[in-house]
C-alpha cells in the first residue's frame, strides 16, 4: 500500500508539482490524497485539480491560527492522510496542529539549516558573502524551521547572483531533494 500524503501550499506550488509527478511512477511509495491551500487563489490548486488530485482551499484571514489549523487538520484526516508535507506553505502552524502530526510532517526550506531560518533566506546568504546556499528538508516541530534535518543540497553561489537568480537554481535542487527524501521517510516506517 502506498503511503497517503497531504500537501499544504500557499502559492505557485512547484514543489507540490514535483512531488505529484514523482508519485505517478509505480515504484513511488507514496500517493498524494489532498492538496490544501490557505489561499483560494493559489496557482498550485489549478495544477493539482488538472491532475485529478482532490483539493481544499480557505483563506486564513479573520480566523485565529489554531482555529484555521483545525479546519485544515479535519480535511487532511477526512482525505485519509497519514503524512503531511509543507510545500511553500507560508503560515506558522500552531503547536496543537504540529502535535497531531508529530514525526509525520516534513517541510522544505530554502537554506542550509540551521542557517537562515524564516524568510528572505537567499538575500541573507548573499549579504553574508557565503560561497554556497541550498535547501533543507526537515521534520516539522512547533519551533519555526527548527526540526531535525533529514537531507540537504548545497548550491554554489555565482558571481553576480541576485536573490532571484539564486532562488531559481535552488528551486531545481528542491524539486529533486523533496520527492526522494519523502520517499525514504515514508518507507522507513513500512
Ligand atoms: N510550527 C511550524 N510551522 C511551520 C514551519 C515550522 O517549521 N514549524 N515551517 C514553515 C515554513 N516556513 C519556512 O520554511 C515559514 C513559513 C512562514 C513563515 C512566516 O513568517 N509566516 C508568517 C506570515 C507570513 C505570510 O503570511 O506571508 C506567519 O505565519 O505569521 C516563516 C517561515 C511553515 N510552518
Ligand atoms: N519558508 C518557507 C519557504 O520559504 N519556502 C519556499 O517557498 C518556495 C515555494 O515555492 P513553490 O510554491 O513553487 O513550491 C520554495 O522555494 C520553498 O523552499
Automatic annotation (TrEMBL):
Keywords from the named record: Purine biosynthesis, Transferase
Residues annotated as the enzyme's active site: 109
Positions with a binding annotation for N(1)-(5-phospho-beta-D-ribosyl)glycinamide: 13-15
GO cellular component terms, A-Z: cytosol
Domain Formyl transferase N-terminal: 4-182
Principal EC category: transferase
Binding residues for (6R)-10-formyltetrahydrofolate: 65, 90-93, 107
Pfam families according to UniProt: Formyl_trans_N
Biological process (GO), any one: 'de novo' IMP biosynthetic process
GO terms assigned for molecular function: phosphoribosylglycinamide formyltransferase activity
Domain of life: Bacteria
Site entry (Raises pKa of active site His), positions: 145
Catalytic activity: N(1)-(5-phospho-beta-D-ribosyl)glycinamide + (6R)-10-formyltetrahydrofolate = N(2)-formyl-N(1)-(5-phospho-beta-D-ribosyl)glycinamide + (6S)-5,6,7,8-tetrahydrofolate + H(+)
InterPro entries: Formyl_transf_N, Formyl_transf_N_sf, GART
Pathway entry: Purine metabolism; IMP biosynthesis via de novo pathway; N(2)-formyl-N(1)-(5-phospho-D-ribosyl)glycinamide from N(1)-(5-phospho-D-ribosyl)glycinamide (10-formyl THF route): step 1/1
Enzyme Commission (EC) number: 2.1.2.2
Function comment: Catalyzes the transfer of a formyl group from 10-formyltetrahydrofolate to 5-phospho-ribosyl-glycinamide (GAR), producing 5-phospho-ribosyl-N-formylglycinamide (FGAR) and tetrahydrofolate.
PANTHER family according to UniProt: PHOSPHORIBOSYLGLYCINAMIDE FORMYLTRANSFERASE
Family label: Belongs to the GART family.
NCBIfam families: PurN
Protein name: Phosphoribosylglycinamide formyltransferase
Species of the source: Sphingobium herbicidovorans (strain ATCC 700291 / DSM 11019 / CCUG 56400 / KCTC 2939 / LMG 18315 / NBRC 16415 / MH)
Lineage: Bacteria, Pseudomonadati, Pseudomonadota, Alphaproteobacteria, Sphingomonadales
Amino acid at each position: 500500500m502506498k503511503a497517503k500524503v497531504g500537501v499544504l501550499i500557499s502559492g505557485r506550488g512547484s514543489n507540490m508539482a514535483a512531488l505529484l509527478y514523482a508519485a505517478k511512477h509505480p515504484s513511488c511509495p507514496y500517493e498524494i490524497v489532498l492538496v490544501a491551500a490557505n489561499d483560494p487563489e493559489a496557482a498550485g490548486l489549478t495544477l493539482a485539480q488538472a491532475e485529478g488530485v482532490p483539493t481544499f482551499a480557505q483563506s486564513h484571514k479573520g480566523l485565529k491560527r489554531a482555529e484555521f489549523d483545525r479546519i485544515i487538520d479535519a480535511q487532511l484526516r477526512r482525505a485519509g492522510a497519514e503524512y503531511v508535507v509543507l510545500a511553500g506553505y507560508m503560515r506558522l502552524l500552531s503547536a496543537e496542529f504540529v502535535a497531531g502530526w508529530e514525526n509525520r510532517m516534513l517541510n522544505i526550506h530554502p537554506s542550509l539549516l540551521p542557517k537562515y531560518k524564516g524568510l528572505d533566506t537567499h538575500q541573507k546568504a548573499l549579504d553574508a558573502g557565503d560561497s554556497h546556499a541550498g535547501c533543507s528538508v526537515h521534520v516539522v516541530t512547533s519551533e519555526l524551521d527548527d526540526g531535525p534535518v533529514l537531507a540537504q543540497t548545497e548550491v554554489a553561489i555565482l558571481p553576480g547572483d541576485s536573490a532571484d537568480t539564486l532562488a531559481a537554481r535552488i528551486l531545481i535542487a528542491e524539486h529533486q531533494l523533496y520527492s526522494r527524501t519523502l520517499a525514504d521517510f515514508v518507507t522507513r516506517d513500512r
